[in-house]
């Protein structure tokens, strides 16, 4: 394919539990600040599953994919820092670099790219008119600001792809908890973001790291993190198990990397949206901190009760207050972290690629979505290569 291509393959949302790979119009330069990137790697994210499952207002026709990297194919006349052939990774946040929040480094809450909503993203419902990158090409607006330049070649491709979202988001979750080196931390959820939070805590000098989940493949992945202790919440009360493992003490910090689709530990118990927040409040020591990078939404069509459907839930705010806990929430400002995490990868200080379970061709995306949603065959983090296998 080339910059003259008029159509391309893309992962196309049809309806709940159905995506297809369609031939769609290829993106074009719409503004002088745009770039067109030929996608070498795009990741399937747990957030994509929220749309796939019909748990959002997403409608058919959306092109998925907010974790994207590739090679610059075209640049608009206003682009000065990028050139054709540059290897780049884009934050999932689309930001203009000009609004007050962007000036303060809070690019996840840009007010200029998606009127009426603080924040924009590729290929995600309500996050602006930006097609996703689970496609052979993607348009990058405000390209000089949004694209991070990488070393040429194919080295570290899997790790660099994770700079679009989950590695910075895991790091951000730890930061939201006000963690400092030497502290202990409990991470709830051993999906990709939770694993990255636990890995980030290790990189940042945590004394003890506990990782809570019940999916065997995820608990096995947690064992790859030096010093991490997996906690299987299907075997008992996770808080009690952590405190026992931690010498009878609560942890200094905790991270909710699960979000609004948390489930209870009882036999056959379904979704309990507040369960992880409650566990964080219980397990964190007085004056400690809680970080919440796990997604919570203002409306959930598939919620288990009327309050949760409106994005509301009950938590033990009295206990939170009594213990003097701090709580930080919100999407990750990827640009705050990505260049530093890139350099840690280049230097060999970090290698987040251990979370990647599968590399697939774009034509295999529908099957991968199904398997990832069902948590089968070890599908935990899937990388799509829309233009075929990488060549070194």
From TrEMBL:
The Alcohol dehydrogenase-like N-terminal domain, residue ranges: 32-142
Superkingdom in the source lineage: Eukaryota
Keywords: Metal-binding, NAD, Oxidoreductase, Zinc
Cofactor: Zn(2+)
Domain Alcohol dehydrogenase-like C-terminal, chain residue ranges per copy: 192-262
Database matches in InterPro entries: ADH-like_C, ADH-like_N, ADH_Zn_CS, GroES-like_sf, NAD(P)-bd_dom_sf
Pfam families for the chain: ADH_N, ADH_zinc_N
Family: Belongs to the zinc-containing alcohol dehydrogenase family.
Protein's name according to its UniProt entry: Glutathione-independent formaldehyde dehydrogenase
């Amino acid at each position: 394919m080339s910059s003259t291509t008029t159509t391309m393959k893309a992962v196309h949302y049809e309806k709940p539990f159905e995506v297809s790979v369609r031939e769609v119009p290829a993106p074009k330069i719409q503004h002088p600040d745009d770039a067109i990137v030929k996608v070498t790697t795009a990741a399937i994210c747990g957030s994509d599953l929220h749309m796939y499952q019909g748990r959002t207002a997403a409608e058919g026709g959306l092109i998925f994919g907010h974790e994207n990297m590739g090679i610059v194919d075209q640049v608009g006349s206003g682009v000065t820092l990028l050139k054709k052939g540059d290897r780049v990774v884009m934050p999932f946040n689309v930001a203009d670099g000009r609004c007050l929040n962007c000036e303060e480094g809070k690019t996840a809450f840009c007010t200029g790219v998606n009127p009426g909503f603080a924040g924009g993203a590729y290929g995600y419902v309500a996050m602006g008119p930006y097609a996703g990158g689970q496609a052979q090409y993607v348009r990058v607006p405000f390209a000089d600001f949004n694209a991070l330049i990488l070393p040429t070649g194919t080295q570290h491709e899997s790790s660099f792809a994770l700079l679009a979202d989950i590695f910075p988001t895991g790091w951000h979750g730890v930061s939201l908890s006000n963690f400092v080196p030497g502290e202990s931390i409990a991470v709830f959820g051993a999906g990709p973001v939770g694993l990255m939070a636990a890995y980030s805590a290790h990189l940042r000098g945590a004394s003890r790291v506990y990782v809570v989940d019940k999916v065997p493949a995820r608990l096995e992945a947690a064992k790859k993190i030096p010093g991490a202790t997996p906690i299987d919440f299907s075997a008992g009360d996770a808080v009690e198990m952590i405190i026992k493992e931690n010498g009878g003490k609560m942890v200094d910090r905790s991270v909710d990397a699960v979000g609004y689709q948390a489930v209870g530990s009882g036999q056959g118990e379904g979704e309990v949206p507040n369960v992880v927040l409650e566990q964080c409040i219980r397990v964190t020591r007085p004056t400690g901190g809680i970080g919440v990078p796990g997604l919570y939404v203002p409306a959930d069509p598939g919620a288990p009760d009327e309050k949760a459907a409106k994005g509301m839930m009950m938590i033990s705010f009295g206990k939170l207050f009594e213990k003097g806990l701090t709580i930080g929430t919100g999407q990750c400002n990827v640009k705050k972290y990505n260049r530093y995490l890139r350099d840690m990868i280049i230097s060999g200080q970090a290698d987040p690629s251990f979370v990647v379970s599968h590399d697939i061709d774009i034509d295999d995306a529908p099957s991968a979505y199904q398997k990832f949603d069902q948590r089968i065959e070890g599908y935990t983090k899937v990388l799509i290569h829309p233009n075929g296998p990488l060549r070194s």
